[in-house]
Fold this protein.
Amino acid sequence: MRTAIIDIGSNTIRLVVYDFSDELGLREIDNIKVVARLRNYLQADGNMSVEGIQLLAKNLRMFKQIIDDYQVADVQAFATAAVRQASNREHILDMMYKEVDLEITLLSEDEEAFFGFFGVAYTMKTPSAITIDIGGGSTEITCYERKELVHSISFPVGTVSLKQQFVKDNRMTGKEKTSLNQYIKEQFEQVEWLKDCKLPVIGIGGSARNIGQVHQNRTNYPATGIHQYELSYEAFDDVKEYIEQLSFDELQQLDGLSSDRADIIEIAIEVFSALMTVVQAPSFQIVKKGLGKGQ
């Protein structure tokens, strides 16, 4: 039996295809990511532009062809912030159903936060933590204790929307960084259950994985994977300072960092750093599982 998961995010659209058999269990047989940045196609009136909708349809048609080639029996497609925040979201979902023959489930903020928590709590050893899943257009944060979800919140900002709001070029100026950090800290400090809880912060998604991979490369860490990798507060700061001193061209070539994230990685780092400060987190941990991986 084969299953396909499509994750339509604000920054990327991802297809993961799995094969299951009694002999071999669940195996990932293909994983394809397209950087679409759908968040950039939300207009002043709240609608996603025709160009953005056409871009989404084009990539989903490509994914459908791949799914058909693999003879997939079960397809699950999910959309998050970029579609959720679009005023014409019903039109978008209807078009994808009629023109691409794909039924898409639109996740609510609470559902997106829950899936992030679920992927962490049931694949990592950490008994209690704060999780953060920063996408292109939203950021979901949860608190779980002894593997039970206690609190969750979703902020309608992500790396792409924050770049639109605070950053003019591919790199942040000092003034832009100060403004961004102040804004993010103010948002987090309004959430009482975050302040001084002193739990580890667990990062979900590509930006968190990239930070871990950069640190692994800097420390010649054995290639054992990124899931459950942990950085102390000091190690996280070291990566932050290292990335800040690189040019944009150097960032695009940096081992461990996806070139398509070179212009937004600093923004993600500032968000993670602000959260760790508010939480007084002892460490930053990384999870590889999540909706984007179909798990």
Q: What stands out?
A: The radius of gyration is 19 Å.
